[in-house]
Amino acid sequence: MLNILVFDSGVGGLSISHRLADYLPMAELILLSDNAYFPYGEKDDTELIMRVSDLLCKAELQLKPDCIVIACNTASTVALETIRKRLQIPIIGVVPAIKPAAEITSSKVVGLLATPATVNRSYTADLINKYADGCTVVSVGSTRLVEIAEMKLRGQNISLSEVSEILNPFIIAEREYSLDTLILGCTHFPLLSNILEAILPQSITLVDSSSAIARQVINVLNIEDTVDQTPFSKLHQCFMTKMESNSDLNTGLLQYGFKSPEIFQPRILS
Ligand code: DGL
């Protein structure tokens, strides 16, 4: 049985696990959400690196996955190197889909919608310099939109005018500079794609990293040759670092094929 741990600060991991389930229906997915330390986009870099690498060391020992997908741009763009040094298993990070966006844009004006931390990271600037050199990138960092994605999964009402306001720089850039591509550089945001598509001009294409990540997992683990292909037929497990007893959250998780959350209690404390 192939066992993949999908890790995020919150429910953003679902946009990645959903794609992994499409590409790898035989895999058992374990969602680990560090909701006790949410939101990552507002945290100090050094603290975040320690928090995530400690937590994933414990998760590796306790949950014994074959690999870990860090389904969080905010953590991947700062902590990947440390995590790879500390853990023994393959680690696949999720970073903003700047390269694919630069390949499909006609106007060479693209948007990057991510957390405040991700838009300000040197890792992100390096990706832009390397892959989108000839493009203008309009960046918006929003923690509020991350919270709105959490609300949507819990079935709560979303204010469309609030989302519109967050998206306004892209709407203006579409009108004035023909911005035609928007990178969803936070794994929470594909959970809002229906709402984003309804608000944004139709000429804007949304791009995220989920399919590329699923293909990368297949490559890294060389799956075709080594794994039983029988589809996983049960609900997947979900762990959280802070218990939330909420039937609306459970309903949202169920829609993505996950059981109600359990608390992740590391047996080995640092
Ligand atoms: N889902 C995470 C990402 O992809 C971040 C959410 C947060 O700020 O905690 O960046």
Mean pLDDT: 95
Enumerate how many helices there are, as a single number.
Answer: 12
Q: Within the largest sheet, what's the order of strands?
A: 4-3-1-2-9-10
Small-molecule binders: D-glutamic acid
User: N-to-C SSE series?
Assistant: EHEHEHEHEHHEHHEHEHHEHE
What class do helices, strands and sheet pairing give?
alpha/beta
CATH architecture of the largest domain: 3-Layer(aba) Sandwich
- Major sheet details: 6 strands, parallel
Instruction: Compute the CA-based radius of gyration.
Output: 18 Å
Number of strands: 10
CATH class of the largest domain: Alpha Beta
Uncertain segments: none
What is the first-to-last residue Cα distance?
A: 30 Å
Shape by Cα distribution? globular
Helix % is 40-55%
Q: How many domains, in number, for the residues?
A: 2
Estimate what percentage of residues fall within beta strands.
15-25%
Quaternary structure of the protein = single chain
CATH topology of the largest domain: Rossmann fold
Description:
There is one protein chain. With 270 residues, the protein is an alpha/beta fold. The protein has two domains: 3-94 and 211-263, Rossmann fold, CATH 3.40.50.1860; 98-208, Rossmann fold, CATH 3.40.50.1860. The protein is 47% helix and 16% strand. It has twelve helices and ten strands. It has helices at residues 13-23, 45-63, 73-86, 98-104, 116-120, 122-131, 143-153, 160-177, 193-199, 210-221, 223-226, 247-255; strands at residues 3-8, 28-33, 67-70, 91-93, 109-114, 136-141, 181-184, 205-207, 237-240, 262-263. It has a six-stranded parallel beta sheet with strand order 4-3-1-2-9-10, with helices on both faces. Helix 9 (193-199) links the parallel strand 7 (181-184) and strand 8. Helix 1 (13-23) packs across helix 10 (210-221) and helix 2 packs across helix 3. The longest helix has 19 residues, at 45-63. The protein is globular. The model has no long low-confidence stretch (mean pLDDT 95). D-glutamic acid is lined by residues 8-10, 12, 38-41, 72-74, 115, 118, 143, 146, 186-188.
